[in-house]
Each structure stands twice: as C-alpha cells, then as structure tokens.
Amino acid sequence: METKERSQLLYLSVDEISPNPENPRLIFDQDKLDILAESISEVGILVPLIVYREEDGRYIILDGERRWRCARRINLKEVPVNIIATPSKIENVLRMFNIHNVREEWELMPTALKLGELMNELRTTNERRLGELTSLTPGTIRRCKILLSLPKKYQKGVLNGEFKADFFIEMEVKALRKIQTNLPRLYERYGRDGLIDLFVNMQKKGKIKSVTDFRLLQKVLQAGDIGLDSQVVEDLATRVIVEQEMDFRESYEVIENLVNVSKVEEKALRLTETFRSFRYNALTETERVRLRNALIELRETIDDILRNL
User: Fold this and answer.
1) I want to staple 165 with a disulfide (CB 3.0 to 4.6 A). Which of 97, 108, 157, 174 is the partner?
2) How far is it, in rounded angstroms, from Cα 257 to Cα 237?
3) Tens digit of pLDDT for each residue in 253-299?
4) Fold entry, domain 1-86
5) What's the whole-number mean pLDDT along residues 176-192?
6) pLDDT band at 5 (very low <50, low <70, confident <90, very high)
7) Of the candidates 12, 135, 139, which has an alpha carbon nearest to the alpha carbon of residue 64?
8) How far lies 242's CA from each of 79, 186, 195, 223, 237, in Å?
9) 24 DSSP assignment
C-alpha cells in the first residue's frame, strides 16, 4: 500500500505491519487489551507506533504491539507510525527493553528468555552491565538467571501458566542451594534436575500449598547449624523430599522445639551481654524502678520454666 502523510504523521496499512520477533513480551493481558481497544475505537490511536522496515518491505514494530493488536481487532485499516532506521539484533532487543520495561513490567519468563539471548549476543553475564543496558534491576536479573537455569520443560511450563515463576525462584534460593551446601550427599545423589522433579511432584500432589512453604523447609535443611546431627537432618530431608511422607510444615514441626531453644539461647546471650555492659550507677531512680520491675518479671518467668525442666 502506498503510504501517505497526514498532519506530519505517516500512516500505514495494518496488514503491512508485523510483530517484533525480539519482543520480550509474549503474554498480553486480555482485560487490558479490551480496555485499550475500547479507547482506540472511541478516540483513535493517539501515540504513533514506532516501526522499522525490513528488506522484504514489511514494517516491524519496535513500540506499539498492543495498539496494533487492538487496531486489527476493531478492523482499523491504517495506523499512525514513526519509521526509524533498521536496528541490529542487539540494538533491537535493547530498545525493546528500554521502551517497554519503563512502562509496564513484563512477565518474568519471557523477560528471562530474551535476557538469555542478550547475554549470548554480548557474551556477558555481568549483572551491573546488563542492568545498565536493559534498565532491569539487579534483583530481576538474578531472578531471570534462575529461570534460565531450569530444564526447558519447566521454562515452557512457566510460559504457558502451568507453574508460577516464584515457585522455582523460592525453590532455588530456599531449597536447592541449601541442599547443595548443607546436604551435599543428597544433592549429588539426585542432582539438581532430579531434585527439581521431586519438588514439582510434591506440588502436584498438594504437599506444597504455597511458595512460602519453602522457607519452612529451609529451616529444616539448616537445622545442623543449631545442633541437630547432620545425619538426622539428611534423613528428615529424605523423608520429606524423596519419600514424600510429610509436607514442609510437618517436617518443621519435628525441629520446631530445637529452633525455639536456639532462639532462646541467642537472646539469652545478648541479654547477658547487655547486663554486663550496663552502667547501673548512672541510672535515674525512675530507670532503676523500671529495670527492677522488668527483671523481677523475667526472673519469675525463668523460675517457672526451670521448675518444669
């Protein structure tokens, strides 16, 4: 179709334009598209699309795919555009990041996949450099890297909505890394992918009700740090993760008393240090009364506990 100018804007046929294959946004919120389509049908497209031209003559969207999709839906024949020079692959990806990510955060898995391509193109995994180029925060980049380390079948599962990205992120930080550090024999026996399969199976069986449950498992995996025998920890973890006899909360209840004792030990040590550093002679009479009352109440509580131990 021959292009024409109107009020300094170039108009193109909707059929001449194609989505950008480098767009990290693969998932579009249907409700938001409905609202945008209604707005466009009433007032038109107020912000022109940004496109570039390929060698075959087609125009590729750099900014405005949602507007283009809505235009097609409501059968607009043409849309306003600004045409820019054809970018390189790296320039294309970076412009997509910088144009879109400042407006509305993309779904994490599509962002991770596109970030992976960018890391391969640039041959860098440096989070600071990637953040400068994409405007992604260091935390988002780290989360993306976790998703990129997943087996392909689970990446696909996150993309199609079968799994939540946070499920694998919590699993990585609170479980897989702790098993590798605290229970290396268990980690070597099943491997990272094998452990992921086991956790996914637990979720499908309803034994992981929330991603925050991994925080309870983390306490179990670190129980050796507070005095539980390492073999006991490994046996308990095996019963939970491999044999799946209990869920994370049930396993935490096994060590809950030990966790509480450890907390009391830590707080008692801090309190003792505070007592030893106290300048009692500098206290006012009001401060002395308050401290005396607090200590009497503490002593009574401690005496009650000691009588039952």
Assistant:
1) 108
2) 17
3) 999 888 888 888 889 899 999 888 888 888 899 999 999 999 999 99
4) 3.90.1530
5) 97
6) very low
7) 12
8) 57, 10, 8, 18, 8
9) S
* Predicted confidence (pLDDT) at residue 2 exceeds the cutoff of 60: no
Strands 9-13 and 78-84, by their bridges, are: antiparallel
Return the H-helix or E-strand segment holding 60: strand 59-63
Domain positions in the chain are 1-86, 88-148, 163-260, 278-309
209's CB contacts (< 8 A; 6+ apart) are 247
Q: Which tens digit of pLDDT belongs to each residue from 61-120?
A: 888 888 898 998 899 999 999 888 888 888 888 887 876 655 556 788 988 998 998 999
Q: What is the amino acid identity at position 137? A: T
Pairing outcome for strands 59-63 and 78-84? unpaired
- Quote the CA–CA distance of 130 and 219 in Å, as a whole number: 33
**Which among 260, 249, 188, 196 has a CA at the least distance from the CA of 218?**
249
Task: Say what the pTM is.
Answer: 0.70
DSSP string, 152-214: HHHHHHHHTTSS-HHHHHHIIIIIIHHHHHH-HHHHHHHHHHHHHHHHHHHHHTTS--SGGGH
Burial call 48-59: b when 16+ CB within 10 Å, e when fewer: bbbbbeeeeeeb
d(CA 236, CA 253): 11
Rounded alpha-carbon distances, angstroms, from residue 153 to 156, 193, 219, 283:
5, 11, 29, 66
**Distance between CA atoms of 67 and 56, rounded to whole angstroms?**
23
